[in-house]
Amino acid sequence: MRAAVVGCGVAGMAAALSLARRGHVVTLFEAFDRPQPLGSGLLLQPSGLAALRVLGLAEAVLALGARVERLEGRDLSGRRILDMAYADWRPGAFGLGIHRGSLFQVLHGALASAGVDLRTGQEIDRIEDSARPRLVDARGEVHGPFDLAVIADGSASRLRGQVRPKARAALYPWGAVWANARDPEGRFADALHQRYDAASTMMGVLPVGRGPDGAGNQVSLFWSLPLAEMEGFFAGDLDGWKARAREVWPETAPLLEGFASPAAFSRASYRDVTVGRWSRGGLTLIGDAAHGTSPQLGQGANLALIDAVELAERLTPNRSIAVSLTRFQAGRRRQTEPYQLASRALTPLFQSSGRLGPWVRDQLFAPLSKVPGLRRISATVLTGMLRLGRTPPNLRP
């Protein structure tokens, strides 16, 4: 089978690798002349690590990242609001904080040996013929036809509307800025730490292990803010922001001193993607292009990796591409839809200007976190293993 993949992010590279390793002829199209990761750090859950094991890349990723045992969040007074431990799901379980650049290097480095034909500087503008897709780039060059075209160009997908014209992808009004720092003494090791001032301010530190340059003891620091204030952050007074950050979380002062200008930060915005069916004919959306949501549960990259593995497994010689894609989506939505719903429900509790949401969060989360049965349920959600149905055996951690 001839397959095209559009987008050289986590979802696109993982899909290209998964398809190529099953013997398909794969062409991966990327708009930029030099593909590069966007953002700072991310948290790989046991579910995402299981998908990387299927791809044969888990050991390489584990060697670069930092083990995360729990997630804990406190308010300005130091009172614990959020307390979730991987061990409540399964003894010995953990997440992995990793620099996006490091994950990118592992995935990108595996493309050539898998036989993936990576074509950079080719921005795909248009899709012709959904049954036997042809991809038309910005110069008017036609690529294909292909038996399958996988659209993995992210939550801001330019091609999503050509697959599903009624799809919606509204921007969340809140985003975040991210930057990396050194934590040589390991003050923030072993956990994703967060601090909250109601829901108008959320600050977090995630250990991510080694950066792409090989330097160890890296952490990613993030600061949540409304999109309307994003430009002001990058054009504004960094010293003033540092003073505010120290008020929120005094222990981060050594990290903050390493930031010389706003240019040290990358920006992140998020979309609530509603697609309905992901596929049409020989076309399918995957990753954030199909089911992007807010980052409150930290599942974006993990769901994308699982999409890639399950897509390749659903394609069988005795079944048409269109039927295979329909069955692929039916299986994946048993996992992606619960996470989309949960993220939508949680977002106002952590990123909003209102007072009711964070009050409910503060009154309920801490007491509920002490209930053993509920701790296991919340840990299951955290690990990425929530699914309304059977998890494929090879994707069980």
Can you put this structure into words, describing what you see?
- The protein is α+β, with helices and mostly antiparallel strands.
- The chain has a domain at 2-67 and 99-171 and 272-351 and 387-395: FAD/NAD(P)-binding domain.
- 36% of the residues lie in helices and 26% in strands.
- The strands form four sheets. Strands 3, 4, 5, 6, 13, 14, 15, 16 and 17 form a nine-stranded mixed sheet that branches. A six-stranded mixed sheet has the order 7-2-1-11-20-19, covered by helices on one side. A three-stranded antiparallel sheet has the order 8-9-10, with no helix packed on it.
- The longest helix has 30 residues, at 321-350.
At CATH's second level, what is the architecture of the domain at 2-67 and 99-171 and 272-351 and 387-395?
3-Layer(bba) Sandwich
Number of strands: 20
Overall geometric form: globular
Number of helices: 13
Instruction: Report the span from N to C terminus.
Output: 30 Å
Provide the residue-averaged pLDDT. 94
CATH top level label of the domain at 2-67 and 99-171 and 272-351 and 387-395: Alpha Beta
Low-confidence stretches: none
Category by helix and strand content: alpha+beta
